[in-house]
Amino acid sequence: MAEALTAETILGTTEDVLRRFGPAKATVVDVARALGVSHGSVYRHFPTKAALREAVTQRWLDRAHAGLAELVTAPTDPPQRLRDWLAALFEAKRRKALGDPELFATFQVLVAENSRVVAAHVAAMVDDLTEIVRSGVDSGHFTTADPRRTARAVFHATARYHDPAHASDWSGPDADDAFDAVVSLLVAGLRTGA
Amino acid sequence: MAEALTAETILGTTEDVLRRFGPAKATVVDVARALGVSHGSVYRHFPTKAALREAVTQRWLDRAHAGLAELVTAPTDPPQRLRDWLAALFEAKRRKALGDPELFATFQVLVAENSRVVAAHVAAMVDDLTEIVRSGVDSGHFTTADPRRTARAVFHATARYHDPAHASDWSGPDADDAFDAVVSLLVAGLRTGA
């Protein structure tokens, strides 16, 4: 068993254990027991409980990002690409929040204690947006003197549709129309230039 | 003493009592004791504890709004008026959050339990923004087919700068520049039309 033990297997089981015991109670020993290995085997991959929690948080955040990266270079024009990317992010976050609220709540605790991982996740999002804004400037669709600053503004202006603090607003009947109104305003602003 | 007892006096004292005892422990009896009156005197103005808590929440939210209403009809052009209104809201919220973090945290509890009052507060904000957007359409500065929908989008797109869930982002060294980038993008979007 121990020879098949990969970091990915440990992380999958850690998520199960977190779901079952909650973020306050879950321990490395619980994870090892669920895997049928010694806790030393787990520590060989993740030297501390904090390292394990950080890695499982990163995996959770990366999953929301999966699929977004390829939208950055989709063959549509940059305004449409921006819309699609923002809609995919909103959809991914909403699916996680509404599809499995208990696991979502669990990960809010982990996210709060792993600010470094969150900062890297946000930076990756802003990198994606910067690339879309840049390609819009190149194609003549967008105007901005500072694509990164503008991309960050787009990310901040859509916080209501990706920041977990707003999850309770994601299920209302107006959520999609309200999202669309914000994105349309931002795309219009990108066309003129801020 | 009892004859001088106004609703405003009671609400001011309720805020002090909330600050001192915290939102979980503060009672109507505590408020009456602090005022030197019977609790019946308090109940004459506010028939239940819930009514008192609702009223004190409303007063707290109204205070953030004070001063904003007159900016709606300021003699500057609508784009500048929009910037000034949004900056004043951000400043008011930030002052409350950073100037008295304990009272701010207390009111987050009250805000969470008084969703009707919060909804009315948000509606008043969106009304202000709608009026500015409309006057911008009239003056030819802004383009939109639906001023209210667009005003709501402006409110949602600036959530990071007025929603208390984001208070931890308000003190960073980049906060003002990030705010400015968002507002500039929105004003540009309003010029073109979404």
UniProtKB/TrEMBL annotation, chains A, B:
Domain HTH tetR-type: 4-64
Keyword vocabulary terms for this entry: DNA-binding, Transcription, Transcription regulation
InterPro entries: DNA-bd_HTH_TetR-type_CS, Homeodomain-like_sf, HTH-type_TetR-like_transc_reg, HTH_TetR, Tet_transcr_reg_TetR-rel_C_sf, TetR_C_27
Residue range(s) of DNA binding per entry: 27-46
Pfam family name, one: TetR_C_27
Source domain of life: Bacteria
Protein name: TetR family transcriptional regulator
